Amino acid sequence: MSTATRDSGVVQVRGEVIAIRRAGAYHHLTIVAPGVAELARPGQFAALAVGGPTTGNLLRRSFSIHKVSPSGTYGGTLDLVIAAKGAGTEWLTALRAHDTVDVVAPLGRPFPLPTEAVPTVLVGGGYGSAPLFWLADVLRERGCTVEMVLGAASEDRLFGVVEARRAADRVTVTTDDGSAGQRGWVSDVLPEVFRRTGAPVAYACGPMGMLQSVTRVAAEHGAVAQVAVEESMACGVGVCMTCVMPVRGKDGVTAMVRSCVEGPVFRGDRIRWEAFHDGVCGVPEDAVGAPKVGGH
Amino acid sequence: MSTATRDSGVVQVRGEVIAIRRAGAYHHLTIVAPGVAELARPGQFAALAVGGPTTGNLLRRSFSIHKVSPSGTYGGTLDLVIAAKGAGTEWLTALRAHDTVDVVAPLGRPFPLPTEAVPTVLVGGGYGSAPLFWLADVLRERGCTVEMVLGAASEDRLFGVVEARRAADRVTVTTDDGSAGQRGWVSDVLPEVFRRTGAPVAYACGPMGMLQSVTRVAAEHGAVAQVAVEESMACGVGVCMTCVMPVRGKDGVTAMVRSCVEGPVFRGDRIRWEAFHDGVCGVPEDAVGAPKVGGH
Amino acid sequence: MAVDLSVTLSGRTLPNPVMTASGCAANGRELHRFFDVSTLGAFVTKTVMMDPRSGRGTPRMAETSSGMLNSIGLQGPGIHAFVAKDLPWLKSVGARVLVSIAGNTAGEFADVAKVLVDSDAFDCVVGVEVNISCPNVANRGLVFACDPLASGKVIALVREQLPRDVPMFAKLTPDVTDIVSIADAAVKSGATGLTMINTLLGMVIDTDRLRPQLGGITGGLSGPSIRPVAVRALWQVTAAMREGRFLTVPLIGVGGVRTGRDALELIAAGATAVQVGTATFNDPTAPQRVLTELEALAESHGVARISELVAVAHDRMVIP
Amino acid sequence: MAVDLSVTLSGRTLPNPVMTASGCAANGRELHRFFDVSTLGAFVTKTVMMDPRSGRGTPRMAETSSGMLNSIGLQGPGIHAFVAKDLPWLKSVGARVLVSIAGNTAGEFADVAKVLVDSDAFDCVVGVEVNISCPNVANRGLVFACDPLASGKVIALVREQLPRDVPMFAKLTPDVTDIVSIADAAVKSGATGLTMINTLLGMVIDTDRLRPQLGGITGGLSGPSIRPVAVRALWQVTAAMREGRFLTVPLIGVGGVRTGRDALELIAAGATAVQVGTATFNDPTAPQRVLTELEALAESHGVARISELVAVAHDRMVIP
Ligand SMILES: Cc1cc2nc3c(=O)[nH]c(=O)nc-3n(C[C@H](O)[C@H](O)[C@H](O)COP(=O)(O)OP(=O)(O)OC[C@H]3O[C@@H](n4cnc5c(N)ncnc54)[C@H](O)[C@@H]3O)c2cc1C
Ligand SMILES: Cc1cc2nc3c(=O)[nH]c(=O)nc-3n(C[C@H](O)[C@H](O)[C@H](O)COP(=O)(O)OP(=O)(O)OC[C@H]3O[C@@H](n4cnc5c(N)ncnc54)[C@H](O)[C@@H]3O)c2cc1C
Ligand SMILES: Cc1cc2nc3c(=O)[nH]c(=O)nc-3n(C[C@H](O)[C@H](O)[C@H](O)COP(=O)(O)O)c2cc1C
Ligand SMILES: Cc1cc2nc3c(=O)[nH]c(=O)nc-3n(C[C@H](O)[C@H](O)[C@H](O)COP(=O)(O)O)c2cc1C
Ligand code: FES
Ligand code: FES
Q: How far apart are CA B57 and CA B77, in angstroms?
């Protein structure tokens, strides 16, 4: 079933859905996907083909890996949390047990882990919390303390509040409408969390606006934010150049880098947030190879 | 569910598959399709949308109506016999009970029935026999005797041999490879059948080559052949002009007529068989509006 | 609050912007079994020429990924039979009719228009669509709409035959290097509007028989697969008109519309009205369904009139 | 019996006719995780220009029915970085490389070719693909390949830089009224082959925001939706060559190939080799899978050599 893929850290496999259940506004899928669990690290993602043999939707859909388990009754499994929003996610969330789906995983760079046992803050927006519980487990194994902040528009759009209580040392919940936890945004509660924990590092996954404010608040408290971004991706494997964003390298030089292979996790302070505006992102003038005035 | 369609003899309805089972090389589908049974006559067909919401296959697939039943536990049903050969039929034959499928039916002109109780010959090639059992019932209700000839390439490609024994007064089976019945083609046995029955009319459904030979043999025995043709159809409802074939009208004038609305049943001797050649059909020079030499 | 769906095309006000596409709805009777064709903004008839035409041999179609190829060869009864039978029927059910015409020569277009204008049922005609995306017998079969001069000539000759107040739409092919120059020529020659786009020239080979699948070898590609080309063509011509490169005329968008959302896409690019073609083969009620879906969508955008959405995307670009 | 899959393109023999398509496979490392890129007939690199280029802003893609739009804007490292890093890597894994080059001006194309020819790893290069489907800065951004003169000029200048025995393919856009005249100009100016087709110009409007979905407004349409246009272009140019209108050169087919059957379709229309582009985004092993499927299909047609199937459909027409 699984395609042996040249010891390259990624497999392509015809997965079998073994469980699919609602979780608030989302669907939680468990897929038998041999080979993925052994390779995956928190923060990486999976790219799924959608629509079946007659489909007109050719592009893969990407999802953060929620968790993996190397063995089990059915072989290694992969868990994803999917919000139905368009043709592809509607097809995926309508799958039934024993249906098959083509999976390429794991993809992208995982969250970098601290070398020492430090306090950490994990921030998830909506389904963005999906990869954080597994990350929390790994961090706690390394002796880090984990404080989690989960935010969403409304209660049904929160994911994993119960699991958070198990995985983290402390959990704060916010919703825009106050239907659960504190009314407001995660950025409202974050300053207090950083103050309290003195965490030198925050991990975040969620909408771009949230990632930007986590980065800002972290910086204000001397912390580094590691953020998992979500940019439109056509291939997910690094060959199409659609998923780029302006990121400053270690050398201080900005380039349009592929978020599927050099991300999806970036240091928040390296992302050129000012280039993003209402769903569109421009090329900063100082980026490598940026169009010259009057040029291309 | 069913769209009331203006008392126009056809309905569009979201059908529900209630049974699907193999029958030799074919799949036999029973679909709840309220409204169809009341309107349908033997020889008409149904056009089904395929592929589901994300599909890239836009065109409907046409199938002879095998039988209908106006009421039942589930409401009116429609039975079709489908050979999986391409994307659309593969999708249809992979449907499971309770899946839904968009059906437009009944379409086209049915087999014209004799006004008197006469002997009749019904000839089916492959799945082409599907509409003939229902036709046989109707003919026998009218006092006609029915003799059936079923032919196919091999035994698994015969459809309804058992049902034929019930529906007809006598049944002859032929297969190209001799795996069932007599080895050979239906046209090998037909002369004898016409001689024996003295039938003034034959009804046939199957591949074009077979329809042509049924027409020829019928004519040789002074009988009229009513044949249900199969031409590539994009719409099935008469609006696209893809399904045309050269047919001589009552006035003797040949026109390119739509087989979906003026057919699929034509008098065999009206079809300009000589225009067909290896899957391609030309426009006879004497057809209405035929290209003039050097013209369009 | 209900959205006002009416649109005005070159002086004629239609109750809504949704139409059938020429050649995808025959001349009305067949679809009338599925929905009342008079509920559409207009009914666009199959292109008719002077004489009856048999069209091409078969196969005439090939399914393609999210689309199809056709090579019908403009089969039709000829303009005299059309005005004697089809047009009166459309009038009798209360349809507003946009009549699509063509000719083998520029002169034939004009002759067809004349017969139409002189016909009894002409008062149900809300415009003429001049299908210049067909071969010009006088010029080695080159499609009229591939050449600004030939396009302009046809349009000017047809214009002479039509009463001043009858809207005339030139239907353009996308198979050109510069569609704006063809649009320009058509408008300068008297087209009061443009319909875009006709099919793209395409071909399918049967890989079992290893020969062209269509009897006519090449065919016209249509369906959702070509919608991005239609949107682009509407956008380019609208942009040129907004820049004042030629007179601003209404555009009718066609190409790959299957849903109300698709219709809105063409409208936002610049179309005042929208035609539904190939999607009708998938769903015979498609034109009516598109209208219903479009209405709901316009409502969700909070506009009072659908016309507020015409070309709206030109004003909403984000330049970061 | 095994089919001989080898094909000869302008003097270079490749083990099989399947390639990646420029811009759909990056420069090899990423796909090499999924299959050994040296097993393909050739690996076609992302178009490279003189200087590093950031490409356009985002969004750079929109999914369309059976296809997609992209507006990457030729992002790349520049030819110097390419010959320093990418080409040696491709050589190290044993790939045969078809290098795609472009320029903002005709002169820049030639300069890029010169750097390539002078590079250390040049011996793994089996040809140069000249991507003339990009904007000509000197002519108001009009795409070179839309104009026979501009196309010819680029080809002639690049030809001067390349050793005689290095195959040179001109990559054509389908967005022209007459692709045969562009093919003619390219061949007359020294192209030893042609690659067809590049993407079609298209556009998608986001119907929630009512604005163009791509940052670059328009983009290139690719994928199975455009295959009928690719087949038609290959057919027309092959027919013209068979009629002796210009020198017969090998064609590389590209456009919508997803399966071995699709590849065979392009081959039967006239392509000697075939590139797999957008399908790779659906399935990262697509180029290799297409090769396997094509081999099985050729076998089922009972040919000894795949080259027997090139343009075969031109000889198999049924004229009833
Ligand atoms: C690294 C990464 C991780 C993600 N993790 C999750 C997750 O855990 N759960 C979840 O529900 N969603 C996640 N997403 C978003 C998810 O990929 C999109 O919601 C999904 O692709 C939308 O597909 P659709 O067919 O429903 O929508 P459509 O709008 O029909 O999609 C059209 C095209 O746009 C692309 N696209 C649309 N929205 C997005 C988006 N936000 N990101 C990337 N591509 C997009 C699709 O892949 C497709 O190619 C993630 C995205 C990325 C890039
Ligand atoms: C009046 C009529 C009655 C039919 N009855 C039956 C039946 O009872 N059982 C059965 O198995 N088949 C029947 N067929 C044939 C059936 O319609 C085709 O096998 C089917 O359309 C093939 O679809 P596909 O997606 O599998 O093949 P594809 O090759 O993928 O089809 C591609 C396109 O070609 C059209 N097409 C291909 N073959 C045919 C064909 N033979 N006739 C019409 N259109 C075709 C399809 O509709 C589709 O639009 C009938 C056809 C007609 C016209
Ligand atoms: C079967 C068929 C027949 C057509 N016949 C005509 C025609 O006679 N005249 C015309 O102007 N366009 C004709 N067209 C083109 C359509 O009107 C329309 O411009 C094109 O199909 C694109 O729209 P669509 O994608 O919605 O089908 C035809 C299209 C199809 C599919
Ligand atoms: C994301 C993307 C990037 C592309 N970049 C290039 C390019 O740099 N140079 C080029 O010649 N063609 C480029 N193309 C065009 C492809 O090489 C190919 O000609 C086209 O996509 C049609 O083939 P397909 O349908 O198999 O994708 C690109 C296509 C896509 C989808
Ligand atoms: S999604 Fe294709 S390069 Fe990142
Ligand atoms: S199938 Fe469309 S007219 Fe017959």
A: 25
